[in-house]
Amino acid sequence: MAWLDKAWVDTALETLTAFFLIAGALITFISSFGMVHLRDFYLRMHGPAKATTLGVGLILVACMFYFLLIERTFHIQLLLVTIFLLITAPISAHLLAKVALHQKLPSDISTTGAPSELREEDVGQEPDTPHPEDPGSGQRHSP
Amino acid sequence: MLIKRCLPRPILSSILTMVWIMLSDIITYGSVIMGIILGIAIPLMTQRFWDAQPVVKKPLLLLRFTLRVMLDILVANLEVAWLISRPWRRPRPAFIEYPLTLKRDFSITLLASTISLTPGTISANLRLDGRSLLIHVLDTDDEQAIIDEIYNRYERPLMEIYE
Amino acid sequence: MIGIALWISFFLVAMAIILNAYRLLVGPSLPDRIIALDTMYVNSIALIILYTIWLSTRVYFEGALLIAMLGFISTVAVCKYLLRGDIIE
Amino acid sequence: MQHLPIFPVLLPLLVAIILLRKREGADPVRRTISITATALLVAIAFWLVSQVADGETLVYRLGNWQAPYGIVLVADRLSAMMVLLTALLALGSVIHASGGEDNQGSNFHGLFHLQLMGINGAFLTGDLFNLFVFFEVLLLASYALLMHGGGKARVQSGLHYVVLNLAGSSLFLIALGVLYGSIGTLNMADMAERVSQLPADRQGLVRAGALLLLVVFGLKAAILPLYFWLPRAYSSAPAPIAALFAIMTKVGIYAIFRVFTLIFGEQAGGLAHLAQPWLWWGGLATLGMATLAVLSARDLRMQISYFMLISIGTLLCGLGMEGTASRGAMLFYMLHTTLINGGLFLLADMIADQRGKVGTRIVRSKKFKYATLLSALYMIGAVSSAGLPPLSGALAKAWLMSTATLSEGLWLWPLLLLSGLAGVVAASRAGSTIFWRHGNGDPAGERLSRGKLVGTVVLLSAAPLLVILAGPIGGYTQATAEQITDTVQYRSAVLGNVTSDTSGASVDAD
Amino acid sequence: MEALYAITTGILTASGIYLTLRGRTFPVVVGLTLLSYAVNLFLFSMGGLTTHGAALVGTTEHYADPLPQALVLTAIVIGFAMTAFAIILAMRSRGDLGSDSVDGNRTDREDPRENKA
Amino acid sequence: MTLPWIPLLTFLGVFVPALAIRGGRTVCALATAVAPAIALGLVLFFYLGHDGEEVMRTSFQWLPSLGLEVAFRLDGLSLLFLLLILGIGLLIILYTRYYLSEKDSMSRFYAFLILFMTSMVGIVMSDNLLLMWGFWELTSISSFLLISFWSHETTARKGARMAMTVTGAGGLALLAGIMLIGKVTGTYDIGTVLESHDLITASPLYPAIVVLVLLGAFTKSAQFPFHFWLPHAMAAPTPVSAYLHSATMVKAGIFLMLRLHPALSGTELWTVIVTLTGLVTLVYGAWFAFLKTDLKGILAFSTISHLGLITSLLGLGNSQALIAALFHIINHALFKASLFMAAGIVDHETGSRDVRKLGGLYRLMPITTALTCIATISMAGVPPLNGFISKEMFFTEALASQQFGGLSWIVPLLAGLGGLLSVAYSLRLAYATFFRRPRQEPPKTPHEPPWPMRFPIELLVVLCIIVGLVPTLPQTPILEDAVRVTMSGEMPEFHLALWHGINPALLLSMAVIAAGIVLHLLHRHMMRFNRQFRPQDARYIFEAFVQRLVGLCQRLTDRLENGSLQRYMFLLMAVSVLAMALGLADLDTLTGNLGQQPLDPIVAMGAALLIMGGVLTAALHRYRLISLLMLSVVGLVVSLTFARFSAPDLALTQLSVEVVTMILLMLALFFLPQKTPKESGGARVVRDVLIATGFGGAVASLNFAVLTRDLDSISEFFIRQSVPGGGGHNVVNVILVDFRGFDTLGEITVLAIAGLAIFKLLNRLRLFMPATDMEGRLWSDDRHPTLLMVVSQTLLPLALLVSFFIFLRGHNQPGGGFIAGLITAVALILLYMSRGVEWAQQRLDFQFQPIAIAGVALSTFTGLCSWLFGYPFLTSTFDHFHLPLIGDIELASALIFDGGIYLAVVGATLMILANLGKLTTAHRPNKDNP
């Protein structure tokens, strides 16, 4: 792969690396920033669910370019990390949202739509065993 | 028959082989052969953990779908980043009940993941009966538009691919 | 050029992690803390990759992979705990 | 046989592997395997002792790596003796356990052998970190065995035991870290070598590490402010395990003995004998407290635990005393006390079986069968523990006393004698209440399990045997003490011609 | 850097120790885990703090001291086994003694006022 | 030489009764008598047969380091005592045959008796102080057994315990004395010690030696104030009293003083202590004997009194006094043994020993009466019996004593007083028992005992008479020999006779007898006089003392071992801080010679995170889940730290372990309270914070001190040898599987044990299961979220692939069996989490224990394989193979070893987690997903 040895390739790679690095880091930072300043949990959730994924993904890409630059080899291994994140991030977000709904975390006042999960009626499982820390109720053992 | 028994999941097998090669970080005969061996062995080992097999009916469509999602992810992220980094404008979040037409767990999962990864939406809860999906939208005015977009952009292709 | 970019990135990612830590610290709800932790895991992948670039070594690639995988599993475990109490039932 | 030193570690491991292939209770086959293996271990230990009796030090280089780099097992007289002691104790315990105790929970025999592996490994290893690993093996196995059969008391005292020892493990690691960080090696012989040339600015570090190590070993050995967990834990343990525990404290003693005579022996310059005063005063204090405590026991098992503490105090005093003479005596005493204490724990279990609900509490009870037999055995154990003639305790104590110098004797003798007296008072109270204070009526109690009886007798027979064979055994322990003092021999056996200097520093800390 | 490292180890250790001195099993186990993390850091640093020196032969000029690393690895595994045992024992103790107090003598009832906290 | 045969024979006799009892009681008694009889014969044979030798000795080495020898001697003194021990012993055996009832176990009694006899024989024959001490304590033990023979009686048990305690304690003091003698003379050999009189008395330790040895002797011989055990030992069967408490055991103390007389006596100290103690005891014992109403009680106190007499004679220390003492030993044994036996007969026949209830027996039991009276007269010291002779010798010596200078008159005064009282109680004994009109009918109608039961008394009484009438005849040579030994060879002139002519002693005797009679007549007044003192029963005092001591000890132990883990932990930590501080104080400067590396902001951030995580884990510990999340942060940052400082393997391991730990802790947390109640007071918190800070500070200082000093370590070797010797580029991994593979084997064993142990713990565990979370919400009814299910099964093959990859490359790159195993385990656990135990268990049809064990086995057998090639355990080998297409492949035995690690980790981890998950499965209602 002789074309790789050209000087402009180096420059290009360097530029790409730097660009992706900054872009990735910036997105990462912004999503974390969003997590700090957004008003309710459901909003805060959006950042990590995708922005972070992308941010890290971009940094990984930067890394690939970097190693292409210095070793002239293409480390596809790093792609795996991105794929992993792509598979898992939505699931984490989904589960977290489930938890938040389960815990009836209040949504911001401006939110339209009120899912049944956040309404007051009881949606949980009936108690099969009383809570041990619940004073006054008897305790039951599982045999 | 033998092929079917040895290769119960050709797609998984090929994915695994590819992943192995990615892991090995180098394409040699050795890594390819090892990848193929593992690609055959691991599905055999893990077969018992799989539910009903999702059959890909239109592989090409799947590829196109994947590419579209990739692109959407990029856009989505930039959009979200933009939204987040604008403290002066309050987003208009919303909960949306999305009625599902997909039936299979696998495709529902794909859809839900896709929704979460793409612009401003997160699939918050899958109802127990599997008939509808609760979606949290970061910033919207028009709920129906979002439902339509999801349906057209993601759910219908998935229907075609898998069901 | 890469050097400068690297240090800027380092700074940004570190700030991101510190912001995560802040969210982890103040909550207010448990899901908030968990998502902060989860994000911290993901951000440490970024950190490790930056470190990899800094040192020009490949030895930490698997580390990144593992954090991705294990961070997910640990988040799942906490969520499951909050949803059902019993993680493995 | 070049592999001899590793047999005592490998045999239990292999047996455990065989026994643990499947999870089941104790069946006759398992019992047979277990007992046979333990008997074989005794034979191997005898072989080992006979090999090293002439003063040779066997060194086994694991993985064929030379000494300071690889791990070595070192069998000298002391290690071999300890291994033999363990094997004998284990034989009695395992026979006793086969009398029914092993069926109270799962995997008894397998875990038992793993514990033996840990103990033997700790005795044989010549590497400080490997010692840590074997400590953990034996500790975890002991945790498991302590819980064998369950029960509130066990869980309660077990929790204390476990948590304290976990903290102890952390301390061990800190100590190891400091020692490695300031000496640069882990092999004990090599450490000894390097400590002798230690730069002055490291002395404090090494001292801190060494003292911390002393605390850790002291925790295992149950030295005064650290022993409070022991009585409950040991008295609530299942009998065969409690019996085996008799050696656990001795592992601590052994470790102190080994580390502080080898690494911090004569050659250590400013650090020489740094543990001596602590051991001496700690031992005396332990002895004194245990003496008072033995009087307080309301339960036979507790009392036996306190007997054990008395013996620990005595052993520590023996370590703390100057000169080699006391060490020969102390080792002899160790043989005696380990076996007898083990036997007493086993006996207490048989007594509890007979007395039903009352168990081993020192109160009036129903008349029970085999009272004569059991009381005779108790007599042997108690007389021996209290240090009355004609059994082993008296001999051991007298020997130890006779080795004290006058200024040491001033402290040691009264305490030792008073502890003996307290032992007499306590044991006679306990014995006469348990065996003699009973209601009228027909004797109750279950049939005596033959296994339990045999196991108990095996251990208690040490009391007369040690007396009869005092000459040769005492000669051996005396020789052991002399060998231990001569660290040059140990070092040259382990390190060979290798100088401890490695070329160049390997660590860059910039 | 060394000073900061040492201070960090110290603080972690102190936190662990503080927790192990609590009266309930769970904090004690958490404390032991924390302590073991701290101790691992401590033990690890005994070979010096090396940047760019992963002990892979042929990758670098000067290597970090691999021996403490190997020791820490062993210690981590053993620590895990011990933590696992301790926490299960804590459960067992709660099941058998009805309380998660380390001494098994207190009740589990919380102060009702504290439920709101 | 054959001397050891004597104690050995009697010792063998211990086992005879048990064997002979099958033949009946008489056979048993006869058989029991055989061994002592032969022994007695041997004694006489040896003694008479020895030619000119002063002392016969035999010795064998036993424990040379201690100076303990099996050494026996036979000299005059031994002979005298041996005759008493064996002779009277034989009589007692005979007497016992008739004394013991059918209910009592005769064989046991005889066995104990013979054991006692053996130990007495041992005492008197030992030629080594330590050996003697051994037998000495053995008498305590065997007497304990004998006194408590009727163990169902409280008095017997208590009496036995008291006797054991007091004499045992004395024995221990004696041991200390012996040790000191050993220190002074350098030997325990009695022969040598006896010749070292000057050395010993000149030593500064001499007072201690005397006091300690005398403590032993006085407790044994029931000297005031250690006398109190003796009366309570009377709970024993009468033969025991007759034997132990008249003839033998109590004489052991006397024997000891005699034995060591040449070495220790002759100083003022000795004289004062021994004489005064003896005299006080003489009077004290006699007075209480006079007041007692129990037959055996009278005899017991009389024994005390007589022992006091003998002791005071020993204190006076001149040869005449010694002769008197020895002579009185014989006499006392004769009359007191017969009296005890007689008392036993009375008790046996009437069912009572209380003199207030007895009386008038002379009509019913004339022969017994006669015998008793003769013995009593002897005891009272009335001529012409043997008691008179020795008592008169005593008076003579008392009158002649000059040791106390101007106060010397006190000796004859006390002696006279004792004599007077002894006349009085003797009279009372005989009169009240036999002659006075009975106040009430005895419980049983007495009649004469069978002849053989009476025979021992008859024999002894006859001996009393013979000795009294012909004092010079049989005992002179024995006494001579005995005295010669006691006086270290010098032989005084002496003459035993009833009639020495009228001299002060005779007058004193007469006066004493007269006064005694008067006193007896005044008995009732004396009793009344005594009643105004509070009755001080030594037994109660002793018991109360022991009780109080025990109570004190119990309170002390309860306070110390209060079952508080917090305290134990605190102590451990405090001691550790002290240990570290002592070391640190020894350091000149904390900072070493090495410069510090510059701080970079990333490290600072990591440190900040760690500190935050650690402190918050501790501070928020009451909110357990949050605390756990903080712990998780610490775990993550620790692993990043490892990565930062060039330890990729560690980073990977730490990370995976951290996650598994989290899962585990959360699994457990479900069954534990979710919050910790606030219970530590402020002081406790401050204390704990202080100790924790101290500890942390010490650790930090140590850490800093080490980090700033350069290290010359052995690591260079590993880096050099890793590739050529271990065949791997990853040095850490090569260390783990090769250089220090043994550690790793131990480590996976630990893991496997943890799995087994946890399985054991979970067995039949009953747990509280909260139905709501910590804020009272019900659990969600979505047990297995669909998305999670789907993703987990997608991840599983990927995870397996990754773990296989990490496993394979471990030898050369970061990774290895351990991490791979954890990844596999975690992936499977994810499956468990998402699908539930039941579902997973159906599909994982293998058990985890065998897997874990197989892992350990695989590693072990890999290690064992090196034996086949003659190398030590765990020697590794590796080679490169060239395969077509694939290229170079390196195969190392370490890889198989690593495979074992992998299996063990997977097996153990799943054993821990899956079993924990199984706890609840079966019992949770399963609504939505049946």
Automatic annotation (TrEMBL), chain A:
Gene Ontology molecular functions: sodium:proton antiporter activity
Keywords from the UniProt entry: Membrane, Transmembrane, Transmembrane helix
The UniProt record lists the keyword Membrane: yes
Region (Disordered) location: 108-143
Biased composition (Basic and acidic residues): 117-134
TM segment ranges: 16-39, 51-70, 76-97
A Pfam match: PhaG_MnhG_YufB
Keyword Membrane: yes
PANTHER family: ANTIPORTER SUBUNIT MNHG2-RELATED
This protein's name: Na(+)/H(+) antiporter subunit G
TrEMBL record, chain B:
Residues annotated as transmembrane: 12-45, 65-84
This protein's GO CC annotations: plasma membrane
Superkingdom, taxonomy of origin: Bacteria
Main location class: membrane
Pfam families membership: MNHE (PF01899)
InterPro entries (alphabetical): Cation_antiport_E
GO molecular function terms attached to this record: monoatomic cation transmembrane transporter activity
Topology of the protein relative to the lipid bilayer: Multi-pass membrane protein
Keywords, alphabetical: Cell membrane, Membrane, Transmembrane, Transmembrane helix
Subcellular location: Cell membrane
Xref: PANTHER family: NA(+)/H(+) ANTIPORTER SUBUNIT E1, NA(+)_H(+) ANTIPORTER SUBUNIT E1
NCBIfam families, per the entry: PRK08965.1-2
Similarity field: Belongs to the CPA3 antiporters (TC 2.A.63) subunit E family.
Name of protein: Na(+)/H(+) antiporter subunit E1
Organism: Kushneria phyllosphaerae
Lineage: Bacteria, Pseudomonadati, Pseudomonadota, Gammaproteobacteria, Oceanospirillales
Automatic annotation (TrEMBL), chain D:
Membrane-protein topology: Multi-pass membrane protein
Record GO cellular component, one term: plasma membrane
Keyword list, A-Z: Cell membrane, Membrane, Transmembrane, Transmembrane helix
Entry's localization field: Cell membrane; Membrane
GO terms for MF: NADH dehydrogenase (ubiquinone) activity
Principal location class: membrane
Pfam families linked: Proton_antipo_M (PF00361)
Transmembrane segments: 6-21, 33-49, 69-95, 107-123, 129-146, 158-183, 208-230, 242-265, 277-297, 304-321, 333-352, 373-391, 411-432, 453-473
NCBIfam families attached to this UniProt entry: PRK12666.1
Protein name from the UniProt record: Na(+)/H(+) antiporter subunit D
Organism field: Kushneria phyllosphaerae
Automatic annotation (TrEMBL), chain E:
Gene Ontology CC terms: plasma membrane
Name the record gives this protein: Na(+)/H(+) antiporter subunit C1
Pfam family, one: Oxidored_q2
Cross-referenced InterPro entries: CPA3_antiporter_subunitC, NUOK/Mnh_C1-like
Membrane topology: Multi-pass membrane protein
Transmembrane segments: 6-21, 28-50, 70-91
Sequence segments annotated as region (Disordered): 95-117
